[in-house]
Fold:
Amino acid sequence: QLTLSNGDNVIEVTGLLSTYYDQRFLKPGEEDHKKDRFKLRDAQIQLEGRYRNIFEYELQFDIADMSANGGTIDPENPGLMDAYVTWKAIPHFDVTFGYGKVPYGRSTNVPSRYSPYWQRPEMMRGDLLHVRAIGVTLGSGFCKQRARVQAGVYTGLGEASLSGDNDASGRPEYIGRVEMAWPSRYRKRDIDDRITPVPMIVVGANARYMDKSQPLDGSLPPSVGGSYDLKVIDGKRTVVGCDVSAQYQGFSAQFEIHRLRLDPAKPNSALFEGLPAELNDGYVLAGGYYGQLNWFSRQWKTILSARFEELNLSDLSPGDMQRVSAAVAYQVRGW
Structure:
């Protein structure tokens, strides 16, 4: 980390490099051969600055993702990670303008370097819900920063907003979140690396809504629906969720659950999977949850973690997607 200051202005420059080896065993018929290889995961540069106590700003980008994506935008690793300015001159409030993570969910707002996993849970990676967007966010902290409320309005196309266009409806997405920690402020970390001497807990709740119903001669921009065609739909989408995180004496745990209601504008929408109106009720439900347990040993410099997740993409189709994951991490020189 490099810090430059002339009194009123302070700029901090940091970087992050990481690489990995990926080995997979493919089932018969699978054609994804992205395996048995070394890969550069992160080559991040982060610029953080502030002017007095009035403005804060951040620019963060990942050269590895910019090179690997080939012009497309990976929602979990989009290349440009943050580009925003926060105005703090309003008493008790701060206003953030620009591009960055939206105030929805806890997992998505924990920096990846503070998690023992290479990937977030499937429903929080950016294929189901936008992780980043361009817009305006109003936030306020109180009770000695133990509680925080955030609300914002955004273009509604998530990472695809970087192209500069909106859909034909022109309607935004609205997102809000509230969280409360006890007995003190809770850091955005998965691991209790400080061996907290007293039990700590943080509980959060959030919601988001958009109506992207298209006019008769309009259509959504290509690929904005994501891998599951649920991130943006021709119609209304309402999402609610809650989460809890706790830590004590090196042990920590996280739980998060989300529910989506999709109201397609057209009765022949592919989301209804060809079912007649009397069977689909005019809407589709989706959602999922995950739970994670972690343990950190300062003496052994080791982190052990286990995670279970379940995801259902449509209540009109039977079956759920389930995953069990485990992680082991060893700290080199305390990092």
Notes: The chain has a mean pLDDT of 90. The chain has two helices and 15 strands. The CA atoms of residues 127 and 226 lie 5 Å apart. The longest strand covers residues 37-51.
